[in-house]
Amino acid sequence: MPLAVAVPMLGPPAVGKSTLASRLGQAPNCVVFRLREQVPAGRLAATAGGAGPLGWMDDVTVATALRRYLDRVVRAAGAHVVIFDNFPGSGRQVRLLLGELASLAPGRVVLPIELSVDAVTLRRRAVQRRVCHRCERDPVRDPRLPAKASDEDAQRCGRCGGVLQPRRGDAPRLLRARLARWQREAAGIRDEFAAAGIAISRLDTTGSLADTAAAVSALVTARSTRR
Ligand SMILES: [Zn+2]
């Protein structure tokens, strides 16, 4: 099955991008691109140290990681849908992504989705979400993926029983910086997609994860069968 739909998942920190991407990625024909997972550990460590706590990556690193990943996905031909978790993160990265897709997977549909939620819910999600250092072996010890708590003990990981921790980037000062970065970059991201004639679908994530996932699936199905 050739790669048919690319879904950039956009939105502010803590809106629920990673949770939603993980959920959608459980479908057999769907894979999730997470930039951090595609960058060599040494490069990630250098980025974490050199670009401040926000961990910004240079264009060459991003382009190399993206090309390698897409090339593998296209060759494997098993994935119909690629979700880009929190990517692209800037207008330049939009151009990068569209360029790589055009050369490696021509004819695919690009369906960017911008998630939003009210400010109170956003803050609550950032305060409540937890990660697991044991289940997610992050090379710079900064796990990002939302962990599910155990039914018996909300402080412990439902998978390995380890103690859950807040995400490093959710500390109030960092979260403010990440929110500010999103607000700064969002206009450029929207402009680049608009310039390419690609509409961004907007989706409110106040409802349940199941409802939001169903809404995304419906969008993907509608777009991939239209032509
Ligand atoms: Zn765990």
Automatic annotation (TrEMBL):
This protein's record includes keyword Plastid: no
One Pfam short name: AAA_33
Annotated EC: 2.7.4.3
GO MF assignments: AMP kinase activity
Record keywords, A-Z: Kinase, Transferase
Class in the EC hierarchy, top level: transferase
Name of this protein: Adenylate kinase-like kinase
